[in-house]
Amino acid sequence: MSLDTALPACPECQSTYTYQDGDLLICPECVHEWREVEVIEDYVIKDANGNVINDGDTVTVIKDLKIKGSSSVVKVGTKVKNIRLIADAVDGHDIDCKIDGIGAMKLKSEFVKKA
């Protein structure tokens, strides 16, 4: 990493010790993660109702979703906290999240609504 590239301070705690991991910026003091505005400025993800969703939002699943390769189902009404948006979505799965009782998975924004 070059010393002439200055990273922005953490928007949560204003720490100047931020570092970059891929397209994410991470604050080691408060563990806040975010993307630079320039990276996602032109990329907007909307929920099933057309509301813009952002990293860290809480969303609610609007339809039962079968989990590929498993007999488990994500039930309608399941709240998913602290989502991460995926700019280079594969097969429309543009939300990365962790669901209690199921684990890490990717969701399509068309099957969630902003909580």
UniProtKB/TrEMBL annotation:
UniProt protein name: Zinc ribbon domain-containing protein YjdM
Domain of life: Bacteria
Species for this entry: Acinetobacter sedimenti
One Pfam family linked to the record: YjdM
Coiled coil spans: none
Similarity comment: family membership: Belongs to the YjdM family.
NCBIfam families associated with the record: phnA
Residue ranges occupied by any Protein YjdM C-terminal domain in the UniProt entry: 45-115
N-terminal signal peptide: none
InterPro entries recorded: YjdM, YjdM_C, YjdM_N
Positions of the Protein YjdM N-terminal domain: 7-34
